[in-house]
């Protein structure tokens, strides 16, 4: 118990603690966005196979998103349960959570291993519509990524072990190690060694495996609050249910990102000058990930700190965690908005070059998109922070409702209405701040009732 009482998440001032934990996590999350962009840019500029390679990556991306979604969802559930158990002083339950987290990671990997062996090529062929070159390239890439996905899945598990005990710096070091290796190996494998799209896949999985190895090292040598044992890996139905009580909604929330991009792209395809608007949306969405991932980093920190103190039944400190977590997210969102408004033109030019389109018309539309859509980032930050608070308090449905509102319910109708206009290339971008504003209003009421029910009585 003495070790638990001295844990920084129960003793350090809340605001400073959140900033101390979140800064490395924001760096880690933003680095994931940079890695995705650089990875795509290398393949696009691969030579005469670049266009087909980019299409192959596009067709493989939904499965990669699914790997991330299930891994992150499982990790969020582990994080919340582990932090809560440590806060309660229930070391036995915390140890079982660690073991069952490893077990779930193995099960998830085996599922994607089977898909990689038997389902990758049919999945790509379904989308490639007879393009044999794209089918072969996409199947080769996706097979490698799925069959060796234990790096990506394992890292999301061990990352949460470190985050739940407040060691976010170490999880960031692990993330940076793998991302840096991936960027270097992308260049080496694709260009000097001429490995093509397979080189991009091998660079990706080697980077992921390196991140997992570093995270495992930090966990087993530095996470003294947790005890590791083979017996804890034996599955416990109760522990698994508790993990996925929170984790399932988190996985669905992550999965909704891919659904949103697909559906919006289909709707934009009905607009006048659809090719320009769709191309601009693809570039804008990559840029927007910087803001989105920064907010997710703050939300993950809220889950760790609030779950721990809520588990300790320290109502005053838990309320402070929720308050400062949300306020700090709003501060970061405002800073990102100012940066995006100021740097809209150079950002658009940078991504325009990376995409290889060279079209001034698309670049001009991307500038407009950044300047309009970024006005909604403060509302987006608030809603994502509220999701973190609700997940930390044990809610599963409410965070999912927020995601459905901001990624589907309020987005699809407004995008469709604006595509009917002759000025759709400008008006359609207002769909996103409108959706974020309306979602933040719903989030406020969900937060109000959750705090009144859970924290006022603690």
Description of the structure:
This protein is mainly alpha-helical. It has two domains: 22-235, no CATH class; 256-458, no CATH class. It contains 20 helices and no strands. It has helices spanning 2-5, 8-11, 14-44, 50-88, 91-118, 120-128, 132-147, 150-164, 168-190, 196-222, 237-268, 274-311, 315-342, 344-355, 360-373, 377-392, 397-409, 412-419, 424-427, 431-455. The longest helix has 39 residues, at 50-88.
Summarize the structure.
This protein is mostly helical. Helices cover 84% and strands 0% of the residues.
Instruction: Please report the total strand number as a whole number.
Output: 0
Q: What is the H/E order?
A: HHHHHHHHHHHHHHHHHHHH
What low-confidence regions span 5 or more consecutive residues with pLDDT below 50? 1-5, 354-359
Biggest sheet record = none
- DSSP strand content: under 5%
Ends apart, CA distance between termini = 21 Å
What's the helix count?
20
The overall pLDDT average reads 82
What oligomeric state best describes the polypeptide chains here?
Answer: single chain
How large, in whole angstroms, is the Cα Rg?
22 Å
Q: Look at the helices and sheets and give the structural class.
A: mainly alpha
Question: What is the approximate shape?
Answer: globular
Integer tally of domains: 2
Name the helicity range: over 70%
